[in-house]
Amino acid sequence: MTGPSPRLDPAALTDYGPWPAPRPHTAPELARLLALVEDRGVRGGSVALGHGRDAASRAAAAAFADAWQERGGQLVAVVDWPEDAASWLRQARRLTDPQPDAWVVAAAPVGWVQLSRRLRHSTDWDPRRTFGFAATGDTRLVTAAGPGVLDGMRGATPEGRVWTVVRGWVVESAEA
Predict the structure, then answer these.
(1) pLDDT average, residue stretch 107-114
(2) CA gap 44, 71 in Å, rounded
(3) Which of 64, 84, 85, 167 has an alpha carbon within 20 to 30 A of 50's alpha carbon?
(4) Sheet of strand 154-156: strand arrangement
């Protein structure tokens, strides 16, 4: 899948703002996220971990990495990205080239909007095999990313509830 850059003009993203900064992850959020990945059949499998460069996203990614490896899981890639970049193609390829069983994302909305568009338009990335911390489960983010970009992605809220992207909406439930 190649073609023109799927990068959105950063000014267009202000229409959806103000964007919240990622908050520190919670213990119930991390526990649910680990369970979601394992329930997907990835127990002990390979995960590519992506995160923004803000402090909360870095800390959440580190907590997931430690917990995943303690459970016997493999990290095949750990990739970070800026909130603004020329195209995000390098980061997208680094996340998808190892062909992981799943992807886990901890990021601020603006950077994740841009990277998810690049992933969807330029790689074989599958949002149905992607799991995110709370900051990535914002309906405005899903709308900004565009139709179908994030459909099927799931994640955890700070309270440990599950969110799923369904036809452009973030739907919450108590169960996985």
Answers:
(1) 90
(2) 7
(3) 167
(4) 74-81, 46-52, 102-106, 130-132, 154-156, 162-166, 169-173
Q: Which helix (H) or strand (E) holds 103?
A: strand 102-106
Question: Identity (one letter) of the amino acid at 20?
Answer: P
User: Helices (DSSP H) in 15-138: which residue ranges?
Assistant: 27-37, 55-70, 89-96, 109-122
Tokens of 30: 């991390």
pLDDT in tens, 69-108: 999 999 999 999 988 777 788 999 999 999 999 999 999 9
Claim: this prediction has a pTM higher than 0.85: yes
Angle, to 10 degrees, between the axis of helix 109-122 and the axis of helix 89-96?
A: 70
DSSP state of 101: S
Q: Compute CA distances 44 → 28, 39, 41, 50, 73, whole Å.
A: 20, 11, 9, 18, 4
Domains of the chain, residue spans:
21-173
The CATH H-level (homologous superfamily) assignment of domain 21-173 is Response regulator (3.40.50.2300)
